[in-house]
Design a protein that fits this description.
It is a single chain. The protein contains three helices and seven strands, in the order αβββββββαα. By secondary structure, it is of the alpha+beta class. It has one domain. The chain has a seven-stranded mixed beta sheet with strand order 5-6-3-2-1-4-7.
Length: about 170
């Protein structure tokens, strides 16, 4: 038994609509991420906060997350507590936060980050899908001369982005 021409047409129409909606969704996500990255860069260039990357998250609690962060300007790692936020691993954040004693780990140097102390952030996990989409032209590719002008912090971010963006 062969499918009718109407059934074949209906299946083809469903496939075409599904593909079109998927492409549209990826473009919207790419545009949104590009806007978030641009806002992040504006905050960074105005000196609002220090740049860090969440190296790993080792505990999610009811009131926040415990993580290891890496300060991008020095490469130094530090334990951190993010109040009321399940911070994603790999994210880049601009923060104005302070360190203090961690009573659970007896660590004298835990970074405590309140939600209001996060000036801007970019989820690293979204940088890779962005590079495969049509919207990657919205993110400027770091050039060698730009990296030289922004110092070690910019160089680390530029390296992370250059790995995420296609050549």
């Amino acid at each position: 038994m062969h499918p009718s021409p109407g059934a074949i047409t209906a299946i083809a129409l469903i496939v075409v609509v599904t593909i079109a909606l998927t492409v549209r969704s990826r473009r919207k996500r790419a545009v949104a991420l590009a806007a978030q990255w641009q806002a992040f860069q504006q905050h960074r260039s105005s000196g609002q906060g220090q740049l860090l990357q969440v190296a790993r998250v080792y505990q999610h609690g009811h009131r926040g997350s415990k993580a290891v962060v890496t300060w991008c300007d020095t490469g130094r790692q530090q334990d951190a507590w993010f109040w009321n936020w399940h911070v994603p691993a790999g994210a880049f954040l601009l923060v104005n936060a302070s360190s203090g004693y961690g009573p659970h780990s007896h660590n004298p140097n835990v970074l405590y980050v309140q939600p209001a102390q996060v000036r801007a952030w970019v989820p690293a996990r979204l940088l890779v899908p962005l590079s495969a989409s049509a919207g990657n032209a919205l993110l400027p590719r770091p050039q060698r001369s730009e990296a030289a002008d922004v110092g070690p912090t910019g160089q680390l971010v530029a390296r992370a982005l250059s790995r995420a963006l296609p050549r």
